[in-house]
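hiii, so i know i said id send this last week but things got crazy w the move. better late than never?? heres the sequnce for the chain we talked about at the cafe, plus the structure i predicted for it. fair warning i was half asleep when i ran it
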Amino acid sequence: MPSHGSSTAEETVLQSLEMEKEKVLEKESEAKLENLQYEKTVTITWACRCGSKFQESVIEFAPGAAQKLVQAVIDLDIESMAGLSSALSSSSSLSSSSTEYVKTPVPVKLSRRSQNKSTNAANESESTGAKTHEKPIEAQYILLCKSRGNEIVLKHADISKTLCDQSSYQVLHRKHYGRLSGIFRWATLKQIESVEFVRFHLYWKKNVSIDTNDIGALPPSDSEEYCFSADTNPPVLKSALRHFIEHPSHAPKHPYHRPRIPKKLRVRLDVNKELITHEGYGIFVKENICWTKVFVIEVVFATCCLIFAVVWCRRNERGIQDGFAIAGTGLSYLTIMLGGLQAVFQ
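okay and structure toks below
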């Protein structure tokens, strides 16, 4: 009889354990289902270290994903991050909370290529006794589309050797502006109006076409030609893209935007003889006239011409008409020169 009673108690305990296990599995499946169905539009505001403030709406596919985008644009270099982590580790309460924070983020959108790369990296780290040698770096290109006159041209920004956001944005900056720098950039009288994630069609060497419905499109998650991971749409704040392409030194020195921007892998996008067009994914940089630059340049030249006219009249003791006639001629030639520079830059 005691043996029968003990077996009954054991069966009861096993049944209760199985019920608890089923409840835990149900809660986990419900949580996963909620994460898959989660979609929320959030309006966020962020400020660059230069003082510029921006506001933008994003769609997040995981709770708190939009807030992480704001935290990503804070200028924390690698040394300050190391100091921050050591400071956190000295405090037991803060270290436990920071550990939980690291474990929580799980990207919702992850391309198959990114999954394969992470799996291969894990397998390589587990394997021991393998020969240590440097592997060739896989080429990664951010496909940058920009207007040139009445056309839209494609440029390949090679970020294979970049390690952080700042160096990646420096490559994008050089690709967008070319050899223009300083006063020559001002002479173009243009500024970046917007940056959009797009799907485009390459139809002749560097010429591309972008349909209105393709603005905001991202590569398919099962694509083997592109790599990106993001839990928001857009993957990166478009205002941050625009600002950091113009001012790459303002970008943070940690790699957060770099893995989130879609990148073309291995080879450049090109049109072969068999295909009339080739579909691609990248970013489209749209420019417009910067009237602030126009105003500043006109004021500077007008002030210089006015000073010249006054000095001319005082030194030559002639009529005021002579000095201002020369100043007016200088302003006329300035207008002609600016128009000529626009034609050259185009």
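btw Confidence is low (pLDDT under 50) at residues 76-108, 121-133. thought thatd interest u
miss u guys!!
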